[in-house]
Model the fold of this input.
Amino acid sequence: MNLQRRKLMQMTALVGLMASAGLITQAEAATWDKAAFEAKSVDDVVKALGGSTAPTVSDKVTLRAPDIAENGAVVPVGVESSLPATQMAILVEKNPSALAAMFILPEGAEPFASTRVKMGKSSNVIALVKSDGKWFMSAKEVKVTLGGCGG
Amino acid sequence: MASPMRIRATESGGVVDVKVLMRHLMETGLRKSSDGKPIPAWFITILDAKVQDKVVFTAEFGPAVSKDPFLNFKLKGTAKKGDTLVVSWVDNKGETNSSTVEVK
Done:
């Protein structure tokens, strides 16, 4: 039993070492994070992403989003950080599922990403940045005059 | 649905700025057609960018990303002028698409 555990730990250490040495690339480890994308609330997304505590609000996380979005179907949002980030995410609090997009940053990828998202109604938009194993955030309210879930 | 992506990758001051415009419906699965039936979800789930077979950026999308998704990201040190950048995506139906561009 004890021996097995030791073996397991050795294996874990080895895999970790391989990952840091670049033998295993990030993408091979990346599969679509179903749990995080299906989580409804912001808290659940953070939990699904492995955050044990609530993200710290940080001025080192910059969220770019308009004050007013005339068309909720196409809202330009971007996240940027001065922290050495390994992962970033964009969330829309009042969407049916909060998580809109997530970015995985191997070494050499700048902590910057920008995209366009749909917003059902006016809501807080949240940028999450993972740095040194911890999540940091920044939020901004975006008013939507025409929802993006119509149809 | 396999329309090519439009990609632009330009280097300036050691940083490569990559802009990608994909063509995809990005159905949320929450809309209903005119006869009241739900339209099944259909959206891009994962996009990655590679230089010389090495992944330099990965994005995961949910259905809340807008139709014909746009993505902008920046690389420092992992790409340079003249490199070939390969951008590929896969959607929740397993369809894939890939395009290449030279970093300018």
Notes: Chain A has two domains: 1-32, 40-144.
